[in-house]
Amino acid sequence: MTERTDVAVVGGGIVGLASARALLRARPGLHVVVLERGNAIAHGQTGHNSGVIHSGAYYRPGSAKARLCVDGRRRLLDYLSTKGLEHRIPGKLIIATRPDQLARLRTIGERAAANGVEGVRWRSAEEIRALEPRACGLAALEVPGTGIVDYAAVARSYARDIEDLGGTVRTRSELLRASVTSDGVEIEHRGGILEARMLVGCAGIEADRLARCCGADPTVQIVPFRGEYYSLRDPDRWGLNHLLYPVPDPALPFLGVHVTLTLHRGIEAGPNAVLALGRQAYRRHEFSVRDLATLALHPGSWALARRWARTGLYEELRSLSRSIYARDLRAMVPSITDEDLRPGGAGIRAQAVDRAGRLVDDFVLIDGPRSLHVVNAPSPAATSALALGDVIRDRLLHHRDGAL
Ligand SMILES: Cc1cc2nc3c(=O)[nH]c(=O)nc-3n(C[C@H](O)[C@H](O)[C@H](O)COP(=O)(O)OP(=O)(O)OC[C@H]3O[C@@H](n4cnc5c(N)ncnc54)[C@H](O)[C@@H]3O)c2cc1C
Fold first, then answer.
1. Which CATH number belongs to the domain containing residue 25 in this structure?
2. Global pTM value
3. Which ranges of 281-321 would DSSP assign to H, the alpha helix?
4. DSSP code of 101?
5. Pair 266, 385 in one domain
6. Do 296 and 265 share a structural domain?
């Protein structure tokens, strides 16, 4: 059966849903269909992340991440309050545990100020102890605006908004093929054929393949990095008030293994960042021959491997050894032992890598014929989704193929 729509959004993660919602709010009467391959929405990164509402402190001033995180966070908090969705704002401490991290911590403080992040304060070693008796460090930045939420619940709420606005969200509807025609894109998906005047690609881990399948050149390759979590036994015993983060390596787009509070009084440690051997390899032993072949054929993968061989090896080792994981956490929380860590879940980051093997830091959108593709939307895209959705909407409405 062939169905027609104005816009097909491929991917029912938080970015696709926020984009569809933004389109419908701006253009009532537009026909928008979201296609999600999973049995439920938030099947990818959105349903497997840390649930942190980032404040925008880390990101390079002027970058899309910096602007959209600060704006997206403010709008997300308004949205959560309006809808009565559960969330908390415990704040976080970014803790320097070695003298060589102090300069980087200062840089994060400067970036936070430049990005307009409010209330950020430098804390001494004594102040860290006073704020968090279980933690220690040489100095910290306190970021009071960092919060926690369940992003899958937020995504479900965006999906309800879409349906209230007259749009459609279809699960079990994986896009299998797409071909550009004279007046749009013909999409073959698991539920049938959909002819759309325009397509928006928000397929996360499959973003590069989707772009190519629609005749666009993503230039980057998506590399899957698994983030594995532990949960802390007896969470009440720790009496933690804040999220605790190390000072990240500025050369990497990952924030380092941190300690996060969950909405239901749990405590998680993680995620690490291990090269996954498949785009759905949520467990260590899983792999995909097709995904490994794709990796091997991209020149960026080899450059990436050369550049980050040591770091990658260490991540593998830490993934295999709970003792190393616990030892790294002890730099911030000295009383954590191996026995305190219970294996938790995992998420897979869709990280774009360019042909030179660089990990692409910022959000990236590219145009294709009759389509627009989000080819890099790593953290903090969940926090930023309402703002990023507006950017996607505006770019689609002013697309060179101007069909809407
Ligand atoms: C371990 C981890 C921790 C993170 N922590 C945070 C955090 O604390 N705060 C934060 O702001 N961000 C965090 N992030 C990042 C955040 O989760 C992502 O940036 C965000 O979820 C991206 O949303 P998305 O919609 O682009 O992608 P996704 O959520 O991955 O959605 C893409 C969707 O497309 C679907 N899809 C793929 N191919 C097809 C196809 N062919 N047809 C139909 N559907 C398809 C997938 O099933 C998926 O549901 C984290 C990410 C990870 C992995």
1. 3.50.50.60
2. 0.98
3. 289-297, 299-307, 309-320
4. G
5. no
6. yes
Q: What's the first-to-final CA gap in the chain, in angstroms?
A: 24
Count CA atoms within 13 Å of residue 14 on its CB side: 26
- Using CB distances shorter than 6 Å, the residues near ligand 1 are 10-16, 35-38, 43-46, 48-52, 54, 174-175, 202-206, 210, 227, 271, 347-350, 374, 377-383
335 and 297, same domain (yes or no) = yes
Question: In the Cβ-directed half-sphere of 327, how many Cα atoms lie within 13 Å?
Answer: 7
pLDDT in tens, 127-154: 999 999 999 999 999 999 999 999 999 9
- Would 36 be classed as within a structural domain? yes
Mean pLDDT, range 168-182, rounded to an integer: 97
Whether residues 216 and 316 share a domain: the answer is no
Domain that holds residue 291: 223-353
With 0-12 / 13-18 / 19 or more C-beta atoms within 10 angstroms meaning exposed / middle / buried, residue 51 is buried
* Spatial distance between the Cα atoms of 91 and 241, rounded to a whole number of angstroms: 8
In contact, 30 and 404? CB cutoff 8 Å: yes
Whole-angstrom CA distances from 48 to 150, 277, 400 are: 10, 18, 35
In a domain, residue 103? The reply is no
Question: What is the pLDDT confidence band of residue 397, given thresholds at 50, 70 and 90?
Answer: very high
Q: Decide if 34 contacts 22 (C-beta within 8 A).
A: no
Mutate to test the pocket of ligand 1, among 33, 34, 35, 46 (most ligand atoms within 8 A of CB): 46
Position 1 pLDDT exceeds 80: no
